[in-house]
Amino acid sequence: MPIRVLVGKVGLDGHDRGAKVVAQALRDAGMEVIYTGLRQTPEQIVEIALQEDVQVVGLSILSGAHMQLLPPVVELLRQRGAGDILVLAGGVIPKDDIPYLKEAGIAEVFTPGTSTQEVVSFIRRHFPENNN
Amino acid sequence: MDRDECRARLERARQAWEEKLKQALEKMPERKEFKLDSGIELERLYDPFSLGEHDYLERLGYPGEYPFTRGIQPTMYRGRLWTMRQYAGFGTAEETNERFRYLLKQGQTGLSVAFDLPTQIGYDSDHPLARGEVGRVGVAIDSLEDMEILLREIPLDRVSTSMTINSPAAVLLAMYLAVAEKQGVPPEKLNGTIQNDILKEYVARGTYIFPPRESMRLVVDIFEFAGKHVPQWNTISISGYHIREAGSTAVQEVAFTLSNAIAYVEAALQAGLEVDQFGPRLSFFFNAHLNFFEEIAKFRAARRIWARLMKERFGAKNPRSMMLRFHTQTAGCTLTAQQPDVNVVRVAFQALSAVLGGTQSLHTNSRDEALALPSEHAALLALRTQQVIGYEIGVTDTVDPLGGSYFLEALTDRMEQEILAYIQRIDQMGGAVAAIEQGYMQQEIQESAYRYQKEIESGERVVIGVNRFTEAGEQPVELLKVDPAVGERQINRLKEVRRRRDQRRVAETLQQLRKAAQSSDNLMPYILEAVKAYATMGEICGVLREVFGEYRPQVAV
């Protein structure tokens, strides 16, 4: 069974190069990837994640609103009984903000310069039973 | 010695050199195959043979003369340096106003306003979607009052102001005009630019609101209105910058930008405007990326293509309609979070390529932009980088100093061919709007972006500090922190404005705008009235959303 991943753009910024490159790399690595497109609210992300029954949610944000918009995704997933979904983030996110985000339940934050292979390996390590 | 003899001697010399070359290559093979991002393969050496039958006047001409390959002014930087224009804006209007006045004091010669995302998408600061975004990537502008504060004590008759605003460009232009009126500056004295390039928003930048057709109407309304009332204003800045940032190649950047430009010209002609009426006010915005010569050739090729398009395809008569004037920004996407000081060097080379390519204005990125929004110290260093190029290293002392380089001229010709092939393909698809609706440009860009990333990961493309010459540990950098209370302060002011204003006048002007939007009237005068009544950005765009609907992109990855 391939790992199912939702790649989502939260916030209002239109920088989707990274999100699309990661989506394509995950797909090339054999995962099933759904990409949300721009300007999703945390509520919309959670709705799609549940509908699509994904195991991973990867959130891309480069607007600087990560502190306000990322934790609610984890929180809403937990409220909907989907706290087991692995939530990752990527984008221009200052190092000082990362501990807070991790405490809020974001499993990993990938900053500029991360190779797509690091993201692939990180996800695979979490789902050894899905051997792809 | 006559020409034939010269030629024969040259050929013999070339053959002799190639003989020696063989031995050299046996001893020391070359490091790799050399090609540009656009896939163009590079020769080992360029010499007089590379240029073929090179007609100087046809391909280059003199600076300030058609086809403007060598630059749009006869004296270029000997007369006046480019405008050093750093994009800035964050928090509330007060904070940005302070940064502007600081930058002007430091010798910056033009302003460039960054707006926050809610403003760019036409939402007020208290809209639910504005959560966390207010004052973040730029300044929040909800009503005329914010604009009055933003421009306080800035002499609008003496500075030129560039505003990175697209979908709601008409609203911001109207606010600027209203503030100028209050300052007593007549509109014909105003200098500046609105980006107003909606097509690249669908392709690469993402701050669209309305569907393409309705958006194009707003663009043309601005052309028409500004042509009559704000004649010095650049009514559009047709932008390849974001297309390149999204991952395109240099060739795609220019090809897609010029295809979009063609669409704007056609829309304006269709609305009954004369090409020489709006042509001189069209301006462009390009990226200065890493490959030094490719970028210089790109700028020169773009100028030549545009001049020919305007003259031959659209029948422009005024040389000013044929001049491709452009702003340049260094490539944010090439900056690294690792060893951020190295970014200063990258930016300097990129900026130099823009200057050697004949740019009219320039923004140099700050070294900390892969880490956060630029800090004041980093932004100042970026400005100083331009000043070193302008005042210390002598590259501005003669016009188009690289003109005539075998390599550069051959490359300019080659890029021109590749760009024209793309433009032709897009013409055949029915033009830029159709190509965008079919997702063609988006798909092309995405493929280039993915290829670029794979090249980095395979090590084929070297990125210092990322895949080569890496260092353990990190350099400490002081980053800009936007005060989290900004949103609250902004929302309070917005509520105050809503409470204080003449509600009846607001309702009336909005109602008139609605009616105008349903008709085919030019919308600018109605937007101006609404703005003066302190109707907010969200209210004005809300009316237009009701009438025009919103754009919903097809998502495909």
Please give a handful of descriptors for the protein shown.
heterodimer, A: 132 residues, alpha/beta, Rossmann fold, 5-stranded parallel β-sheet, 5 helices, B: 557 residues, 10 strands
What does this structure look like?
The complex is a heterodimer of chains A (about 130) and B (about 550). Chain A is an alpha/beta fold. Chain A has 5 helices and 5 strands. Chain A has one domain (about 25-125): Rossmann fold, CATH 3.40.50.280. The longest helix of chain A has 14 residues, at about 65-80. The N and C termini of chain A lie close together (about 10 Å). Among the domains of chain B are: about 55-90 and about 195-460, TIM Barrel, CATH 3.20.20.240; about 495-550, no CATH class. Chain B has helices spanning about 5-25, 55-60, 95-105, 115-120, 145-150, 170-185, 200-205, 210-230, 240-245, 250-270, 275-280, 290-315, 320, 340-355, 375-390, 405-430, 430-435, 440-460, 485-500, 505-520, 525-530, 535-550, and strands at about 85, 85-90, 110-115, 160-165, 190-195, 235, 235-240, 280-290, 325-330, 360-365. With about 550 residues, chain B is an alpha/beta fold. The mean pLDDT of chain B is about 95. The longest helix of chain B has 25 residues, at about 5-25. A 5-stranded parallel beta sheet of chain B has the order 1-10-9-8-7. Chain B has a 5-stranded parallel beta sheet with strand order 2-3-4-5-6. In chain B, helix 6 crosses helix 21 (about 525-530), helix 14 crosses helix 15 and helix 20 (about 505-520) runs antiparallel to helix 21 (about 525-530). Classes of the chains: A alpha/beta (about 130), B alpha/beta (about 550). The interface between A and B is large, with 38 and 46 residues.
